[in-house]
Amino acid sequence: MKARIGRGLALLLTLTICVSFIAGCGSNTSQNGQQNSQQNSEDSGSSSSVTEGIDSIVRFGRDWPTYYDPGVGSSYTCSIAQTNIYDALVFANPDGSVSPHVAKEWTVSEDGTVYTFYLRDDVKFHTGNILTAHDVEYSFKRLMDIGQSVAYLYKDIYKDCRAVDDYTFEFTLNNAFGPFVNTLPRFFILEKALVEEHTDLTATTYGENGDYGTNWLLTHDAGSGPYKTVEFKLEEYLLGEKFDDYFLGWEEDAPQYFMLSNMNDPVAQRTAFANQELEISSDSLPQETYAEMEDLGGELAVRTGMGVWSILLNTKIAPTDDINFRKALAYAFDYDTVVNDILPGTDKVTGPVTEFLFGKNKDLEGYNFDMEIAREYLMKSKYADDPSQWVVTMSWCAEVPEQEKITLMFQAALQQLGITLEVTKKPF
User: Which of left, alpha, beta for 296 (phi over 0: left; psi -120 to 50: alpha)?
Assistant: First the structure.
């Protein structure tokens, strides 16, 4: 089975995410799970009861994918679900490059504005129907009409797209855009006929396209990916089953099912793991929880991911509208403590783009923790003579306890400069 798991100065303080998870081998724990692959869930029990009797499953303890409709959702968990349920023209490799997927090959016009993709003719949707260029055209135009998910990637460069014939698809751009193909692993293909069949035309959200099937696609899928939806219970879990007719085939020991569960609490994940009801944990647990799960027989896997943990700054309001004030904050952040003590195994990056991604500027030196330089920039800011303005608000995610440690560390450092950091806790 092909691995499929995986979108002013806003990104000032950045750390490469350390994707840490525990992999265990548990058999599981209540309904058979052999339900209709497109069934809506209204009468199922808890996620553990749903998987009772299933002994070939991988369960992820993260959160439920709010919107796994490719035209709507773009969060991390939504992306995991989309990548397992749907297919794209190309597939992303760990080194940031892309490989042919639904598209066997492609050509680019001399001026870099026309991309022609030649599709495989053996890709089946979960309904059994063959994927064609007409589905690709419908999916991309739907994405742009809805204007959510990853539509922002194409908003300024997209001019038109069309199915030249059943297995030839063409994009036309307003201007040449070098990373265009590298963006396409995030563009997923839906079955046009199935979505149209379940489109509510009484709605007026998208004009003559009604609701574009968005309501039905909250809990059902129209994909061709390696897994098909068995059950999606909103705010609880997504259960997917292996699609036997997947065009890439399967390895012998590939799991029959996968589940994404709303399980962010560290105690809940540790308990589920101890009970053999969890195979892969969240990547944002406290380090002590990982240690406990290792003691229970789990394996701790650490790798550097393509994303970053970022502190986002509002560059339109005081005092972070001043570049020197922002630089003072950047130099007052203790990166080494984070990567060595709070999130051991992570790497410090020198900008918002990691080395794995196209466009990384390897000449950037980045910031270091230096309170003297921070004080110098603070004195250069337009708020240097008005300490009453030295107040910044920062929130941390309640489901990620390590963020509280980082926030409190930052608060203590800024206090030495006379800057007040007001801390708030927010739910995911």
Answer: alpha
Question: Following DSSP, what letter does each residue of 6-43 receive, concatenated?
Answer: -----EEEEEEEEEEEEE-------------TT---SS
User: At CA 319, angle to CA 316 and CA 322, rounded to 5?
Assistant: 70
DSSP 338: I
Nearest CA-CA partner of 138 in 51, 70, 235, 47: 70
For Cα atoms 422, 406, 74, give the angle at the middle one, nearest 5 degrees: 90
pLDDT digits (tens, 9 = 90+) for 313-327: 999 999 999 999 999
Burial 127-144 (b: 16+ CB within 10 A, else e): beebbbbebbbbbbbbbe
Q: Which residue in the block uniquely carries the two structure tokens 């994405």?
A: 143
Neighbours of 418 (CB within 10 A): 10
How far apart (Å, rounded) are the C-alpha atoms in residues 237 and 260? 5
- The long-range contacts involving 250-255, CB below 8 angstroms and separated by at least 24 positions, are 250/1, 250/226, 251/1, 254/1, 255/56, 255/57, 255/58
The crossing angle, in degrees rounded to 10, of helices 401-417 and 371-380 is 60
Q: Burial of 201 by CB count in 10 Å (0-12 exposed, 13-18 middle, 19+ buried)?
A: exposed
Tell me if the pTM is above 0.90: no
In 3D, which of 124, 50, 116, 38 has the Cα closest to residue 277? 50
Closest CA to 33 of 259, 262, 230: 230
**With 80 as the cut, is the pLDDT of residue 410 above it?**
yes
Report which of 233, 360, 262 is spatially closest to residue 308, judged by C-alpha positions. Answer: 360
**Torsion 189-192-194-195 (CA) sign:** positive
Are the beta carbons of 75 and 65 closer than 8 angstroms? yes
What average pLDDT score do residues 111-134 get? 98
Name the least confident of 136-140, 142-146, 256-260, 285-289: 285-289
Interacting residues of 153 by C-beta distance below 8 A, sequence separation 6+: 7, 183, 186
